Write a sequence for this structure.
């Protein structure tokens, strides 16, 4: 049995991809026979009631908000608090290894390694050169160079690297011998249980429901959905954007929808993971418009479980092909709309069945067994 300290430098649990990946990974590792503790910030999107894993939090810091995605200067104080909390935990618990997510979590983990000599695994969810330019305030070159430096430290100083997909591993082309791809998985039984006996959140409606679920951060390219919605201003189609973000975080998107008079677009904020799954389950077509190649959105594997038509960019749905989804090149709005029309007109479910058969490879319990074997190479 491995004793693992997993560092989650994000709100935890949370209603978006990173915290969800960490939670489901940790629970599956526990079922695989490992002991897992989570070290995280003081805040969360919802209370964790299952008690499968132990969660240790930093003290609440006044005026420090860590809920929104992306790097922020004031998060440095929150990360420093993670290190302080981690020092006490490592002394008390004697962990076999530290599994740290993202750059912030890994820098914290490497700091703990410097004191206790515990092996550190860097879980690489993103590529800085891909994601950071989507945050307007971080286009200033010195800041980006600093983040590149931190990324290189994580890659070169960690004892092992977990990549969320093969494209990130290929991009870095790292000489680290201890590396493995563990994609963001899904829990088929859990999702099937969620939708069992659930009620249709859309009520009685005859229009074709085209739905996006997840974060509305810029790197998700939700704006592309609005561009396609402009081309489909008729009553038989309605677009739904279901997000875990609060209404005040959705103001820019909401104002744009109102300004453009997009009556065929409905923004529904503040929905947790389960609620997002249920909305998706009662939709006709599911969307993933993210352009850049780094990472695998969790929504893709969840969509596959639901056996729904998937219209997605080739960059975001790398585990799918033309036999299992309606794929197009990110940013090409004409191609996006063309694939959407194909999905609307299609009467068979062959692509959906193919996607479901493939998603069984990405069940979290199977991935946890693979990850446990990797741990034994490191510890």
């Amino acid at each position: 049995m491995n004793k693992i300290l997993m560092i989650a430098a994000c709100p935890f649990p949370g209603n978006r991809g990173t915290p969800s990946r960490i939670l489901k990974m940790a629970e599956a590792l526990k079922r695989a026979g490992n002991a897992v503790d989570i070290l995280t910030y003081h805040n969360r999107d919802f209370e964790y009631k299952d008690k499968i894993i132990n969660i240790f939090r930093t003290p609440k810091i006044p005026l420090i908000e860590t809920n929104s995605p992306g790097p922020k200067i004031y998060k440095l104080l929150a990360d420093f608090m993670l290190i302080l909390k981690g020092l006490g935990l490592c002394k008390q618990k004697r962990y076999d290894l530290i599994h740290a997510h993202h750059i912030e979590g890994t820098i914290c983990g490497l700091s703990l390694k410097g004191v206790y000599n515990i092996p550190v695994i860097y879980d690489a969810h993103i590529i800085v050169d891909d994601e950071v330019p989507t945050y307007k305030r971080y286009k200033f070159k010195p800041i980006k160079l600093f983040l590149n430096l931190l990324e290189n430290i994580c890659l070169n100083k960690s004892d092992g690297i977990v990549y969320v997909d093969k494209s990130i591993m290929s991009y870095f082309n790292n000489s680290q011998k201890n590396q493995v791809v563990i994609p963001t998985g899904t829990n088929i039984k859990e999702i099937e249980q969620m939708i069992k006996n659930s009620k249709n959140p859309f009520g009685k409606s005859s229009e074709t429901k085209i739905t996006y679920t997840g974060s509305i951060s810029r790197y998700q390219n939700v704006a592309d959905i609005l561009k396609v919605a402009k081309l489909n201003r008729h009553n038989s189609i309605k677009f739904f954007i279901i997000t875990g973000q609060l209404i005040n975080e959705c103001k820019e998107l909401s104002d744009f929808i109102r300004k453009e008079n997009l009556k065929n677009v409905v923004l529904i904020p503040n929905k947790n993971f389960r609620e997002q799954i249920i909305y998706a389950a009662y939709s006709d077509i599911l969307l993933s418009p993210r352009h850049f190649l780094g990472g695998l959105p969790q929504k893709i594997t969840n969509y596959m479980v639901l056996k729904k038509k998937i219209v997605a960019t080739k960059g975001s749905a790398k585990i799918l092909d033309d036999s299992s989804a309606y794929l197009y090149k990110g940013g090409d709005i004409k191609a996006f709309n063309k694939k959407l029309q194909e999905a609307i007109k299609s009467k068979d479910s062959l692509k959906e069945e193919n996607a479901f058969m493939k998603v069984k490879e990405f069940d979290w319990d199977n991935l946890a067994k693979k990850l446990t074997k990797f741990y034994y190479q490191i510890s």
In short: The first helix runs from residue 17 to 31. The CA atoms of residues 263 and 354 lie 34 Å apart.
